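Q: what sequence does this backbone want?
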């Protein structure tokens, strides 16, 4: 009987030791799969808990911030389409390589041109022109120049541009305004596959104001996209609070937006 007990004790001790070794091996293997940079050991934890890490839908290969990517050439509301910008007219308007013109939904950058009494186009003056050029340069760099040059701008390394057309009223089609411009939310995909909303950036940095968008169902600028409306509203509140760009001096606002 004593011999049997002894054998059992040895047997269970052997099993326990075997499991410990196996567990240790698995732990080592897992740690090897999650390598820690010896030069920056804190980087591992920072990346794991990074508050700025893109949301799951931003990392999805078939969606942009929750909008499904459509590879067809027929634009529909609330689908994302990859385009290439060929020309930036001003801060909130550009053209793609297929000659489609786009108007950024719900925002308004200062004008750089206006018509004189004879109907001829002339440059605007003073702060209106100044802030209009700032907005134009910002959009040009983010949606065109940096992509062509594969360079960084304002902390972003742009790689691709996506547009998400929105439903409109009183336009030439369900997604255009009366100038045949596709009214859209513009997204910039960077080299890290994170998406940035260009409309939001322009407003949040004080290069544009929130305009031509409403939650009033009787307005010609009515939008069903409440989430986006609140998003831009928050961006404008932040810009005002921090007195950025067009909000830095209340006395010049009417000069920047004379109408």
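A:
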């Amino acid at each position: 009987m004593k011999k049997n007990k002894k054998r059992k004790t040895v047997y269970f001790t052997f099993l326990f030791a075997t499991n410990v070794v196996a567990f240790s091996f698995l732990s080592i293997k897992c740690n090897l799969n999650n390598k820690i940079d010896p030069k920056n050991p804190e980087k591992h934890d920072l990346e794991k808990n990074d508050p700025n890490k893109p949301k799951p839908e931003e990392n999805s290969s078939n969606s942009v911030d929750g909008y499904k990517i459509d590879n067809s050439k027929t634009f529909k509301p609330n689908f994302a389409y990859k385009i290439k910008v060929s020309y930036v007219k001003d801060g909130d308007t550009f053209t793609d390589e297929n000659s489609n013109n786009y108007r950024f939904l719900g925002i308004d950058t200062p004008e750089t041109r206006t018509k004189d009494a004879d109907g001829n186009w002339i440059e605007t003056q003073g702060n209106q022109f100044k802030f209009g050029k700032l907005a134009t340069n910002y959009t040009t760099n983010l949606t065109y120049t940096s992509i062509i040059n594969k360079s960084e701008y304002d902390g972003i390394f742009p790689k691709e541009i996506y547009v998400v057309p929105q439903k409109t009223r009183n336009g030439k089609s369900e997604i255009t305004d009366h100038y045949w411009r596709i009214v859209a939310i513009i997204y910039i995909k960077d080299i890290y596959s994170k998406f940035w909303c260009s409309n939001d950036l322009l407003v949040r940095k004080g290069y544009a104001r929130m305009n031509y968008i409403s939650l009033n169902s009787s307005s010609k600028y009515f939008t069903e996209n409440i989430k986006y409306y609140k998003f831009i509203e928050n961006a404008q509140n932040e810009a005002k609070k921090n007195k950025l760009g067009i909000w830095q001096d209340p006395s010049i606002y009417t000069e920047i937006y004379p109408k």
